[in-house]
Amino acid sequence: MGGGFAHFFFTDILSDMVEKISKIVKPVVDSFGLILDSIEYIPHGRRWVLRIYIDKEGGVTLDDCQKISVQAGNLLDAENVIPHAYLLEVSSPGMDRPLKRFDDYVKYTGRMIRLNTARPYNNKTTFTGCILSADAELIRIETLKNGVVDVLFSDITKARLEIEF
Fold first, then answer.
1. pLDDT in tens, 67-79
2. Phi and psi (nearest 5°) for 84?
3. Quick one: 85 and 113 in the same domain?
4. Could you tell me if residue 146 is inside a domain?
5. Total-model pTM
């Protein structure tokens, strides 16, 4: 058993924990008319950090974050899902939010993004451009330097919205 097995085992445990947390937190977020964007549960130094990212049309307010923090925190503590001390953070994914799901590309069609790919397209692995379309697992972007580029969703390793002024 090498480090690879331990890494995958640890990743599976974290994935299971995030799924349990999500089942508790999502109804709370939904009840306030918000969207549960994503959850991170990660070690940070000697402590664990639980980050809950929420969203809504028009943007998330500090009051939204406070309500979710109190309600979700109380429920998670009552359910004893996390058996040790942790820091709970609730925030918006931000203007330069990461794009994680295929639906994110559909939602943000027409917006500028920056993305990295696992394999080269037109001899490049980093692109900045406007999302033209997202269908059948294919993301089509128009870049200034490379024109239109079609990228398979499965080849994208990282993508973020670009802040536009």
1. 999 999 999 999 9
2. -145, 175
3. no
4. yes
5. 0.70
